[in-house]
Amino acid sequence: MAKYIGPVCKLCRREGYKMFLKGERCFSPKCAFEKRPFAPGEHGRANAGRGGSDRMSDYARQLRAKQQARRVYGILERQFRRYFSVALRTRGLTGLNLLQTLELRLDNVVYRMGYAENRAQARQIVSHGHFTVNGRRTDIPSMLLHPGDAIAVREGSRRKPFFKDLPDISEKRNCSLWLDRDLKSLSGRVSRLPERAEIDGNLNEQLIVEYYSR
Fold first, then answer.
1. What is the pLDDT of residues 33-62, one digit of tens each?
2. Within a domain: 15
3. Which among 66, 95, 163, 189 is most buried, taking Cβ atoms within 10 Å?
4. Model confidence pLDDT, tens digit, residues 56-78
5. Listed residue (177, 200, 198) closest to 114, CA to CA
6. 3-state secondary structure at position 165
């Protein structure tokens, strides 16, 4: 399973906004983005006050929009391009189709329900086989869900310390409005497709469409 294994705080600094890739740490004084809110590298600080996106070409803006979406959802280029191809063949707005497809990944749904601190943790606990989808155990974080699908922590996993404490921890986390959550049984359901207003507002899907339409 291919994944990015470098320092994720550098990704937030490179994209110029906090993507909350480390969960609770992003809200603490230890957050690297708060300490160094400029791009990493030798010239990051020097370029911080020189107009930023105003000096970027159209291609650069499109590339950054695509990279931001990839990094928010923790997806590498090949898989992201495949998601775009699926969105392009689906009826409706290609950009919205793409974002909805990304939101419906199993690891993202687990994160949106508050059962994981961040998407990386959600990906890990799904890949370890701790969740079921419609009653069947699955260990595929990229599995795409549909309205009506039900997910739940596997019965055998609920005795583990992480999941014993999870109801109290998850209660403090918000659950997306397009999902139904039952903390008592550590389960949930996809009630409908997410609307655009319920997806990360920092993502610019139109620029992503323009990037792949070149």
1. 555 666 666 555 655 554 455 578 999 999
2. yes
3. 66
4. 899 999 999 999 999 999 999 99
5. 177
6. coil
Half-sphere exposure of 54 (CA within 13 A, CB side): 5
Same domain, residue pair 92 and 109: no
Quickly tell me which residue has 């404490």 as its tokens.
Answer: 165
Tally of helices (H runs) and strands (E runs) in the chain: 11, 5
Nearest CA among 99, 103, 114 for reference residue 175: 114
Neighbours of 192 (CB within 10 A): 11
Of residues 214 and 37, more confidence is placed in 214
Establish if 124 belongs to a structural domain. yes
Band (150; pLDDT cuts 50, 70, 90): very high
Is residue 33 a contact partner of residue 18, using CB atoms and an 8 Å limit?
Answer: yes
Q: Pick the closest to residue 158 from 117, 115, 118, 190 (CA basis).
A: 115
Which of 56, 160, 72, 66 lies closest to 111, judged by CA?
A: 72
What is the four-CA torsion angle of 206, 209, 210, 213, rounded to 10 degrees? -160
Based on the fold, state whether residues 161 and 207 are members of the same structural domain.
no
